[in-house]
C-alpha cells in the first residue's frame, strides 16, 4: 500500500439515513478513516457523492454462453464490473476456478457459490454439476466446501417431455441438501423462473431465490415470513420474450409461460417488496448478458416501483449487510464509488462513476 492519503469530500453516504452522511473521509493504508491522518503530506482529493462499492448479487465470473472461459476473459469480466462501480460480487455459479482473483487488489471481491448444481440434462450445457436427487446432498456438501458461504441450485427448468417449466427436485432431496449446506455454514440459493418449485424450497429452508418470477400472491407471505430474499435480475428477465419466440414452435406451453412471467415481472417485484421480502440487485452477467449492467438493474427496480433510496440500498448498504461485508465503516477496506451528482435523487447517476476506489486505490 502506498503512503498516499486519499481525501474524499462532498457527501459520504455511509448509510441510507441522514445521520450516516458525512462531509468527508480519509483513506490511509487502503482503509477508511473519518479522522484526518496527522502529518499527511501526499494527499489526493476526490470530490462528489460517495457510496460503498456497489454489490452485484447475481453475477457469473469465468462463464459465458458456452461454459467456462480462460482466465484472461474472466479478468476482463471482472474489470468491466469494477469500472461500472461493482466492487463486491456474489458469484451465482461458475464452472471456472476464479480463486486467483482473491489475490488481485485491483479486481472486485467475490463471494462464490461454487458451481451450479442442476438435475441431469435440466440446465444449460457445460454450466453445472448435473446430478440426480440421490446425489444432491453430497454434491451440495462439496460445493459448500469449495465456495464462500453460498451454494447454487437450479430449482426449475424446462422439462422437454412436459414442454413446460417444472421443478427439478423432489421435496425430500432439497430438504436434505439444504440442511447439509446449513450444517457446513453455507447459505443456499436457487434459480427459479416458475411457480411450482418455490413452496418446497422455502419450506425446506432455502435462504434466497434467484429471478423469482414465479412468486404468486399465495407464496409471497411465505417468503416474507421466512425472510427469504430474492434477486430478481430484471435486466435478464427482459430477455424472456426473445427466448419465448425462439422456443415457440417446439415448446408452445413453455413459451406462453415465459411470456406470462415476463408480463407480470414488475408487479411481482413490487408485491414482494411491499410484503417486506428483501430484494437485492443482481444482473446475471456472464451467461448471455454482458458485465457492467449494475446501474441498469437498479433503474429497473425503481421502474418496478421500489423507492429509489431502497433500490440504492439493494446494491449498497443493505446488500453488504446481507452478505456480511462492511460498507463505509471506520477501518474497513476503502471500496467506494464517487459520483458527480446525488444518486439518491436519481439512480441513473450510477451509470457514470466519476471515480472508483478499490482497496484504497483510484482505479483506471
Ligand atoms: Zn445466473
Automatic annotation (TrEMBL):
GO molecular function, one term: hydrolase activity, acting on carbon-nitrogen (but not peptide) bonds
Alphabetized InterPro entries for the sequence: Amidohydro-rel, Metal-dep_hydrolase_composite, Metal_Hydrolase, Metallo-dep_Hydrolase
Gene3D superfamilies in the cross-refs: Metal-dependent hydrolases, Urease, subunit C, domain 1
Highest taxon listed in the record's lineage: Bacteria
Domain Amidohydrolase-related, residue spans: 174-362
Family affiliation: Belongs to the metallo-dependent hydrolases superfamily.
Protein name as it appears in the record: Amidohydrolase
Amino acid at each position: 500500500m502506498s503512503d498516499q492519503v486519499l481525501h474524499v469530500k462532498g457527501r459520504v453516504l455511509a448509510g441510507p439515513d441522514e445521520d450516516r452522511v458525512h462531509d468527508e473521509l480519509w483513506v490511509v493504508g487502503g482503509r477508511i478513516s473519518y479522522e484526518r491522518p496527522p502529518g499527511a503530506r501526499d494527499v489526493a482529493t476526490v470530490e462528489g457523492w460517495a457510496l460503498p462499492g456497489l454489490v452485484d448479487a447475481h453475477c457469473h465470473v469465468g462463464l459465458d454462453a458456452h461454459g467456462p472461459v480462460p482466465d484472461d476473459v474472466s479478468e476482463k469480466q471482472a474489470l468491466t464490473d469494477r469500472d461500472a462501480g461493482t466492487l463486491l460480487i456474489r458469484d451465482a455459479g461458475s464452472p471456472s476456478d476464479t480463486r486467483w482473483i482473491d489475490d488481485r487488489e485491483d479486481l472486485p471481491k467475490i463471494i462464490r457459490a461454487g458451481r451450479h448444481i442442476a438435475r441431469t440434462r435440466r440446465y444449460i450445457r457445460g454450466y453445472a454439476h448435473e446430478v440426480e436427487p440421490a446425489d444432491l446432498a453430497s454434491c451440495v456438501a462439496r460445493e459448500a466446501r469449495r465456495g464462500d458461504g453460498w451454494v447454487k441450485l437450479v430449482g426449475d427448468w424446462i422439462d422437454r417431455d412436459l414442454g413446460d417449466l417444472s421443478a427439478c427436485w423432489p421435496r425430500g432431496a432439497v430438504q436434505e441438501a439444504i440442511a447439509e449446506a446449513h450444517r457446513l455454514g453455507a447459505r443456499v440459493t436457487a434459480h427459479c423462473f416458475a411457480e411450482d418449485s418455490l413452496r418446497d424450497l422455502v419450506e425446506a429452508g432455502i435462504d434466497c431465490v434467484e429471478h423469482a418470477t414465479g412468486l404468486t400472491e399465495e407464496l409471497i407471505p411465505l417468503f416474507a415470513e421466512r425472510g427469504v430474499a430474492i434477486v430478481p435480475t430484471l435486466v435478464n428477465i427482459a430477455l424472456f420474450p426473445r427466448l419465448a419466440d425462439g422456443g415457440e414452435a417446439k415448446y408452445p406451453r413453455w413459451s406462453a409461460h415465459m411470456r406470462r412471467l415476463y408480463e407480470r415481472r414488475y408487479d411481482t417485484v413490487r408485491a414482494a417488496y411491499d410484503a417486506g421480502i428483501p430484494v437485492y440487485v443482481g444482473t446475471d452477467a456472464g451467461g448471455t448478458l454482458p458485465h457492467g449492467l449494475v446501474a441498469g438493474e437498479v433503474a429497473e427496480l425503481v421502474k418496478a416501483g421500489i423507492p429509489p433510496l431502497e433500490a440504492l440500498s439493494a446494491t449498497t448498504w443493505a446488500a453488504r449487510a446481507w452478505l456480511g461485508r462492511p460498507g463505509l465503516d471506520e477501518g474497513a477496506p476503502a471500496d467506494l464509488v464517487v459520483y458527480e451528482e446525488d444518486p439518491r435523487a436519481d439512480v441513473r447517476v450510477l451509470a457514470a462513476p466519476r471515480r472508483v476506489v478499490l482497496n484504497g486505490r483510484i482505479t483506471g
